[in-house]
Design goal:
The chain is mainly alpha-helical and 517 residues long. The protein has a domain of 185 residues. 82% of the residues lie in helices and 0% in strands. The protein contains 22 helices and no strands. The chain is globular.
């Protein structure tokens, strides 16, 4: 029955896709990437945005619902423990990738069997070593955070380390789909993973398993995701090592992966420093505030999956690249800003009626984090994908080092002075460093008009957010009125956006419709 369910989803995805019947029948490799025309790239990119956006909304609704239930069932301390364990495991896991997967996506030429098996072999060797190291060092890590529960945390680290080995098998099948922009298929394993994680985690939390609910749900859901990927994108697991292919892939992959490691270290000030200084509960509050603030970024996560491979396909044409970047920024702003300002404007009633008042202590951290991402993440994420697409991974590495220095330079003293809220304060400082520098560097590659593409949706969303913030204490008295307030906010935003930018919206609609003729 499960296999038939997967086939039904696959069939629906293919019907919904804008690709031609010939495209859908093509194998899940990149044998025809060099022959992909600009029209195909546009159609698949836009079709990918539509498919991923709708599915991401469904996923976020499922994930958000599960997070709310878990937040009501479990304590901030349990969330903090899992955040610490996850961070440490993911940190070790970054050393098992070395960026070869990203190098395969960015590569201009057709992928060879040597590329694939070399990438897989190197990753398996590294992941195997990392898993053993993590297993052996788990007692030391648990003593840093676990106190009396150090033995329990030791096995939390050890069991979670299995997730690295499972995830390593997902790399090649995912890349084969991303190379040809078949995101309508790539989203299916994500749907299955999210649903299985939430069902298992909630079920085990109700049964009293505490933090182990997260751990077992992670392992099982990743197994399900891996198996579904191999069904959708079959690849015969092959071991082998070609030194020439490895050298070429490492040239792009190593700087790319270093960026990920530095980014993890930048964000690691929360679980590492705050966890040791203030305990797991403080980490739990910060993790909740960050998760809530980053909720609107789901649209950026969708675009990131598409813009990097799409920009890579048109990296030789700077005019097309410029248009692609500007459209990505504008689309992101139109969808991201209203969700962000609804979250900010209705934050207090959302916490009170949805999460319960035990999370109110994290509200200052939420507001500061929301401010930090409003003008940075929504723009810099697109810029970073453009840097990667044109092969400037070293530039991204330098930027991440700078952001790491800023985060720790301000984060540590702020935490010592103001507690865990100091992390959110450091994020605001980093935002003021991030935005102007990102714009300056992007304009050295292609000239991008930022204000033209974000000013109208930002103004419309701001007006809507201010109205909701001041009206909420008087009109929101429960879940139904909260939902009504969200609907009213959407109407206010849509009306102001339409009035302020009607001509531009019509032009974008006409431009998008022409791509499908």
């Amino acid at each position: 029955m499960g296999e038939q369910f997967l086939k039904n989803i696959l069939t629906q995805s293919e019907v919904a896709s804008d690709a031609t019947a010939q495209d859908l029948a093509a194998p899940a490799d990149d044998s025809f990437v060099p022959e992909m025309t600009i029209d195909i790239i546009k159609k698949r990119a836009i079709g990918g945005v539509a498919a991923l956006t709708m599915r991401r909304i469904v996923l976020k609704v499922i994930s958000f619902s599960g997070e709310v239930i878990l937040a009501r069932l479990l304590t901030p301390e349990i969330f903090g423990i899992f955040t610490i364990v996850s961070f440490m495991v993911n940190f070790f896991g970054f050393f098992g990738d070395v960026g070869l997967g990203a190098a395969l996506i960015q590569k201009k030429e057709k992928l060879t069997d040597d590329d694939l098996k070399t990438t897989f072999t190197i990753q398996q060797l590294l992941v195997g070593v990392i898993t053993i190291v993590l297993f052996v060092t788990s007692p030391l890590l648990s003593r840093l955070y676990g106190g009396e529960e150090s033995l329990s945390m030791t096995w939390l680290f050890r069991v979670m380390s299995l997730s690295l080995f499972i995830s390593s098998f997902k790399v090649i099948p995912s890349i084969l789909l991303e190379r040809v922009l078949k995101f309508n298929l790539l989203i299916i394993p994500e749907i299955l993973e999210v649903i299985s994680f939430q069902v298992i985690a909630i079920g085990m939390a109700l049964s009293g398993y505490g933090v182990w609910s997260f751990v077992y749900a992670t392992i099982v859901s990743r197994v399900i995701g891996m198996l579904s990927l191999f069904i959708l994108s079959p690849w015969r697991v092959t071991l082998g090592l070609d030194l020439r292919a490895a050298k070429e892939l490492f040239r792009f992959g190593l700087p790319y992966q270093l960026i990920g490691i530095i980014g993890l270290m930048k964000d690691g000030v929360t679980p590492i420093f705050v966890g040791m200084l203030l305990g797991a509960q403080a980490v739990g509050y910060l993790n909740w505030a960050t998760t809530f603030a980053f909720l609107p970024l789901m649209i950026i996560q969708v675009l990131n999956r598409i813009t990097f491979p799409a920009f890579s396909r048109v990296q030789h044409d700077r005019i097309l690249l410029k248009k692609g970047i500007e459209k990505a920024i504008k689309f992101t702003g139109i969808v991201f800003f209203p969700i962000a300002f609804i979250s900010i404007g209705l934050a207090k009633p959302i916490v009170h009626y949805v999460y319960t008042d035990k999370w109110l202590s994290a509200m200052p951290a939420f507001y500061l984090t929301s401010i930090s991402i409003l003008f940075t993440t929504s723009i810099s994420a697109t810029f970073f994908n453009a840097y990667y697409a044109v092969g400037k991974s070293k530039l991204c590495l330098k930027l991440m080092i700078l952001y790491l220095i800023v985060d720790w330079t301000f984060g540590v003293p702020f935490v010592l002075s103001y507690g865990y809220i100091g992390i959110a304060m450091a994020r605001v400082v980093n935002a003021f460093v991030n935005l102007p520098l990102s714009i300056y560097l992007m304009n050295r590659i292609v000239k991008i008009d930022i204000l033209k593409n974000i000013s109208t949706p930002l103004l419309s969303a701001s007006i809507m957010g201010i109205i909701l913030y001041f009206a909420a204490p008087f009109v929101v008295t429960g879940i139904p009125s909260l939902a009504l307030a969200v609907l009213v906010g959407v109407i206010i935003y849509t009306a102001t956006l339409y009035i302020a930018d009607i001509s531009s919206i019509r032009e974008d609609i006409r431009g998008a419709s022409q791509l499908f003729r």
